[in-house]
Structures are given as C-alpha cells and as structure tokens.
Design a protein that fits this description.
By secondary structure, the protein is of the alpha/beta class. Helices cover about 40% and strands about 15% of the residues. The protein binds pyridoxal-5'-phosphate.
C-alpha cells in the first residue's frame, strides 16, 4: 500500500508525548522526535522504493536519484557543492572521520592537531585514540562561559599542525564558539579547520563559507530527522582518507550500502529546519528564557552556566548547589520532566562533565548540573509547569517542603 498522501501516524489525539500525556520533554539537545513531514518523505524508501543505490537496474537508479536529491538539498542548505557532502551514520562517524581521515591523509605534512576543551566526546575520544597511534594534540582552554580562548589557541600552533577542531556551538551549555576568528587563524597558519556543527545546525544558520571551514559534521536526529543519519562536509581539494573501507559508495570515500531513507529524511529535516529557523528560534529562545527566569527566581543559589548572551536558543544549563544532578534528574522524571546531565550518566557513577570542569567548575558543581533543552513542540504552559516542578523538586531534595 502506498504511504503517499495518507498520514503514516495515528491521529494526533491518540499520540501523546513520549513519556505519557502531560510529560514535558526538555531534552532536545539529546534527540528530537522525527517531524511528521520528514517521516512522510522517508516512508516510501522503506518499502516500494527499496532499491540499492549501487544496482544498475531501474530500482537502483531510483535510489541514486533519491540520494542525489538529498545530497543537493543538504549542500544547498549549508552553502556547499553536492560533491562536497558525504552521508554518514551521524555525528559520531562524521567527527571520527574528519579527524582520522585528515590526519592519516596529511601525515607527511604533520602529525599535530588542536582541539578545544569543550569538544564532544566523539572528538575527544578520537583524539585520544589518535594519540595512541603516534599523533599528538593540544587542547585550547575555554573561558568560564565555555567559549574557546582564541589567544590561547593561537599559541598552540606548531609548524606540524595540520588540523584545528572547534565545534560551532557546545552541546552541554549551548555556548556559541568563535568560529570566525579561529577560521581566520587557520587560514593564516595554513591549517585545516573542522567544525562539529551537530548542535548548531538546528538553531543557527550554518554556511561552510561564512566563516570558511574545511570540514563540518552534521547529525539528523538533532533536528527532527531520523537517528543514524548525518553528513560530513569536505571542501574540494582537502585530502581525506576513508574511515570505512568497502565498496565504492560516496565516491569511493565511505564504503557501505547507502541508507537512502535516512539520507532522504535527514535532507528533509535540514531543509525544514532552515525554512522554519526565523520563526522557531525566537519562539524557542523566549520559552527557554521564561523557564530560566522562573527557575533562577525560585531555586535558591541556582547558577546558569554558559554564555547566556551567546547561547543556542533551546539550552539552559543550571548548577543546583547541594543537589546531585542524577538525583535531580530522577526526581524530575518522576515528576514529569525529561532533562539531562551534562555528562553521560552510566550505572550510578556519572563522570563530571569535562566541559563544566574546563569552564572552571569544581567536580561537585559539575556533578550538580542539569541541562534543559527546549524544542519546536514545547509550549509556554509547559515552560511554566516545568519551572514549577524544578522549584518543587529542588525544595524536596534539599530537605524542604
Ligand atoms: N557532536 C555533538 C556536539 C553532539 O551533541 C552529538 C550528540 O550528542 C554528537 C556529536 C554525536 O552525534 P550522533 O548522535 O549523531 O552520533
């Protein structure tokens, strides 16, 4: 049966939010629901349009056409050429590929790279792995608001520096990074610039020429697209080795049968994000500010983290002194609010966030921090209700009412 023209979802009234009716989802920096229009665009590629883009027959050719269309669309959204866009399984693969691909392919030029202390684990852990392979890296500090210190970063350049990694905006505190200044530095020093725009792309205009970057990572599920899809932009002329060896997919640079439905969904989600940005960003920022003001006023000693003036619109990260972040998260969940710790919490032993530590927070402060992230579907009523719940939960945990 064709999925075209009919809603693939049950009627809205029957759906409810994940977590149950009335549950308030404030964890959009972790992931977002797939937009209904995106799902609609993807559905045919699971069933009637199931061809393998490598097949020579007509089913394959239709898959290639869908993939080409998705690539053209992603390229147009970020100011790139289609030939510079490589589909990946998401942000983690794009980050790993950017680092490994550039360092392996340019090893005769140098084996040193620079990254900011606020980079995502996908960059940090890859850097550590590369160090074990004989490459070396230097970490540029961030200031108390999580912004990379450009003067300190400049001092880290060496004659053998081939790559600088600076995310466009931070995923934990939302701080927008000084990409234009670092881009100019890289151009002057002859180093390549890679930017992880996984969080930024949902909220800020991302254009690979303004400021110029050589490589850029994107992930679909942060902007109302499917999980397991994303892209790495690689500027024409930049030498990059493959990360995945196999067939000749993605112009011989990334083996593996193409995820056509994923690419189509990712492209549709990115386009929608670009089209809606002017209306979504101020609305989401206003919701976040409304919530943050109520939390700051209602929770004694609540400290907002990050560069509040220069922050992604959805994110409000707080330190609630004297309350363990994990306990706050569990209590919030029970009370009907989904939020997140800055760091990956695992089996009762959460590591304090490396970003908050780099910003000068103590381990204890870092462990008592919570990230709230607003999205497209949140309402004013939810912002108010969530703030009231946060205030109540903190009072309870601190031994109050
Ligand atoms: N980079 C940043 C800044 C992120 O926030 C994330 C996800 O949280 C990733 C990379 C990883 O992306 P993915 O989940 O698509 O692997």
């Amino acid at each position: 049966m064709s999925a075209r023209g009919r809603s693939p979802l049950p009627p809205a009234a029957k759906r409810g939010a994940q977590g149950g009716a009335g549950y308030i989802y404030l964890d959009h920096a972790a992931t977002t629901p797939v937009d209904e229009a995106v799902l609609r665009a993807m559905l045919p590629y699971f069933s009637e349009e199931f061809g393998n883009a490598n097949s020579l027959h007509r089913c394959g050719r239709r898959a290639v056409a869908a993939l080409d269309g998705a690539r053209d669309s992603v390229a147009a959204c970020i100011g790139a050429k289609a030939s510079e866009v490589y589909f990946t399984s998401g942000g983690t693969e794009a980050d790993n590929w950017a680092l490994r691909g550039v360092l392996y392919a340019n090893a005769e030029r140098g084996r040193h790279f620079i990254l900011s202390a606020a980079e995502h684990h996908a960059v940090l852990e890859c850097a550590r792995a590369l160090e074990r392979e004989g490459f070396s890296y230097s970490v540029a500090p961030v200031n108390g608001q999580g912004r990379a210190d450009v003067a300190a970063l400049e001092k880290l350049f060496r004659p053998d520096t081939v790559l600088v990694c600076l995310m466009a905006a931070n995923n934990e505190v939302g701080t927008v990074q000084p990409l234009a200044e670092v881009s100019a530095l890289c151009r002057a020093r002859g180093a390549l610039l890679f930017s992880d725009a996984v969080q930024a792309a949902g909220a800020l205009p991302v254009n690979v020429n303004a400021p110029p970057v050589d490589l850029l990572a994107l992930s679909s599920h942060k902007l109302y697209g499917p999980k397991g899809a994303g892209a790495l932009y690689v500027r024409t002329g930049v030498k990059i080795a493959p990360l995945l060896f196999g067939g000749l997919q993605e112009r011989g640079k990334r083996g593996g049968t193409a995820n056509v439905a994923g690419a189509v969904g990712f492209a549709a989600a990115l386009r929608l994000t670009c089209e809606r940005r002017a209306q979504d960003v101020p609305r989401i920022a206003a919701l976040r500010d409304r919530f943050a003001e109520k939390v700051s006023a209602g929770v004694v000693g609540a400290v907002r983290n990050g560069d509040v003036q220069n922050c992604l619109p959805g994110i409000a990260n707080f330190t609630f002194a004297g309350a363990a972040g994990e306990a706050v998260l569990y209590a919030l969940d029970l009370a009907g609010v989904a939020a997140s710790g800055g760091a990956a919490c695992s089996s009762g032993a959460p590591e304090p966030s490396h970003v908050l530590l780099a910003m000068g927070k103590s381990e204890e402060q870092a462990r008592s921090s919570v990230r709230f992230s607003f999205g497209r579907n949140n309402t004013e009523a939810e912002a108010d209700a969530a703030a009231a719940i946060v205030v109540r939960v903190l009072q309870k945990l601190r031994g109050g009412a």
